[in-house]
Each structure stands twice: as C-alpha cells, then as structure tokens.
C-alpha cells in the first residue's frame, strides 16, 4: 500500500502543478481585450496618414459635418493618435449633441488615456441616448470587467447579446467571465459564437482552448492553439498555450521551443517566462 501511494504522489504533484499553471493562463486570458481589438468597426487602414488626409479634405469642404469628425476621430484612434481623436469627437458632439456613436467612441479614447470616469460617463450618455446601441454596452462592459466589476460587465455583455449584436466581442468577453468562474461549457459555447462571427481572430481560439484544457480535452485545446498561431503567429499567448500542452504531454523540447517563441514576442509575458524556466530546469 505504501509503495503504491509513493508511485502516485509524483503524478499527483505533477497534476497539481499543471492545474496551477492553467489557472495562471486563465487569469492572463481574462485580461485580453477581445477578438478584433476595441475599434472593431473601423478598418485598420483607416488609421493611415493617407486616409486621414482624405478625411481632413472632407472636413475642410464641410467643417460643420459631425459625421466627418466622428469618422476622422475613429481613424485617429486606430492610428494611436488619441489626443487628435478626442478633439474630433468633441467637435462631433458639439455639432450634434445627441450623437450617441460619437459618445461611445470618445468613451474608448478616454479609457485609452486613463480617464475611466469620463469613459463611463460617455458610455452612460450613449446608452441614455440610444438604449439599443450594442457597441456602448460592450464598451462599458469592458470598462467594468477591467475594473473587476464582473456582475455589471456580465449584464452589459448579456444586454448586447439580447440586442442580437453581431459584434464578436460580446460573446468573447462574456466567455471570459464564464471561464473565470469555472463555467467552461458555457465559455466554450460563447467562444465558439465569437469564432463564427470573427473567424480570423486568434483570441477566441485561445480562450476556447484554455477552457477545453480545463476540461481535460487536450486534443481540442491543442487544435485551437495551433489555429490561433496560424491566424497570427505574433501573439505570445498562443505560443505559450501551445507550449503548455507540449509540457503536459512530457514533450519538453517542443515546449521549450514554443515558450522561447512566446518570450521573443513578449519578454514580459510571465506564463511564457516561467514556463521556459520550468522546462529548461527540469
């Protein structure tokens, strides 16, 4: 009996270690922003200097057009020019005080600039002006989620989904909340919905893969992590997730290579740094 227990103890310790590692990855996943970033309605090309110049020409021809300022503000936001974006959204709202889309767009810029209260005020105003505007609920939900107000965040994502949103972020972010609560079957369902709406985004594949892994469905988890890497090979999380599967399987060399790639992409991604040290030291 004693010998049998001795045989099981290393396996039990290994299982506990893997469970702890998975918990760390789940916590990291909960910090993600969603499948296609925050400004999902604006194509990345709209942040280009050429496009901004074209939008500026439109504004020069009609400086009283709030729509033009809203579109250029979104383009500035895509290009990381947050102060310029804020100025344009301010102008759009001054010209059209009930411009609920501009309030939601300005809220996001406030959030990027670290002014969370102003962001919340703008999301609230956008929803007050149009209680059926799904993007405002999703944006406010993200604000609540990052502030640790999980119930309020869940309610906002739920509301967006009830409004028949086609925005993948609502399902992705509700999935993250389910995942954080250990409700992995619901999380997998939401990540799958997000994937159907945004099949080229790696984030929901990573999210779903982690929930599969939490349910010991290693094959489906591995397939999702591999798909995430194929979609975008520059995401450190995807490589670290793949590495964890290799590590669980005892394939330390392959795990090390994947962790190394994750660290190259993001030297500050702790699950990858810790994972690499672990497999190199074992």
TrEMBL record:
Pfam name, any one: TPR_11
InterPro entries: TPR-like_helical_dom_sf, TPR_2, TPR_rpt, Ycf3
Gene3D superfamilies (UniProt xref): Tetratricopeptide repeat domain
Signal peptide region: 1-29
The keyword S-adenosyl-L-methionine belongs to this UniProt entry's keyword annotation: no
Superkingdom, natural source: Bacteria
Keyword Repeat among record annotations: yes
Ranges of the TPR repeats in the UniProt entry: 66-99, 100-133, 134-167, 168-201, 202-235, 236-269
Keyword list, A-Z: Repeat, Signal, TPR repeat
Protein name (Swiss-Prot/TrEMBL): Tetratricopeptide repeat protein
Annotated organism of origin: Mesorhizobium marinum
Lineage: Bacteria, Pseudomonadati, Pseudomonadota, Alphaproteobacteria, Hyphomicrobiales
């Amino acid at each position: 009996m004693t010998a049998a227990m001795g045989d099981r103890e290393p396996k039990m310790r290994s299982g506990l270690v893997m469970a702890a590692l998975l918990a760390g990855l789940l916590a990291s996943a909960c910090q993600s922003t969603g499948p296609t970033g925050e400004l999902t309605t604006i194509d990345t090309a709209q942040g280009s200097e050429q496009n901004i110049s074209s939008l500026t020409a439109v504004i020069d021809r009609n400086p009283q057009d709030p729509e033009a300022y809203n579109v250029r503000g979104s383009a500035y936001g895509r290009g990381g020019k947050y102060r310029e974006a804020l100025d344009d959204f301010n102008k759009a709202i001054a010209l059209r005080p009930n411009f609920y889309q501009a309030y939601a767009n300005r809220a996001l810029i406030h959030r990027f600039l670290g002014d969370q209260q102003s962001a919340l005020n703008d999301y609230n105003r956008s929803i007050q002006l149009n209680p059926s505007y799904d993007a405002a609920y999703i944006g406010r939900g993200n604000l609540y989620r990052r502030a640790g107000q999980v119930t309020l965040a869940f309610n906002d994502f739920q509301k967006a989904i009830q409004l028949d949103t086609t925005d993948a972020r609502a399902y992705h972010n509700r999935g993250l909340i389910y995942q954080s609560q250990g409700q992995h079957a619901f999380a997998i369902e939401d990540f799958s919905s997000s994937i159907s709406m945004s099949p080229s985004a790696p984030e929901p594949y990573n999210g779903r893969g982690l929930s599969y892994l939490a349910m010991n469905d290693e094959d489906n988890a591995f397939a999702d992590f591999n798909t995430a890497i194929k979609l975008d090979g520059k995401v450190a999380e995807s490589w670290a997730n793949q590495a964890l599967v290799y590590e669980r399987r005892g394939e330390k060399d392959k795990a090390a290579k994947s962790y190394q790639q994750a660290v190259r992409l993001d030297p500050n991604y702790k699950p990858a740094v810790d994972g690499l040290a672990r497999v190199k030291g074992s």
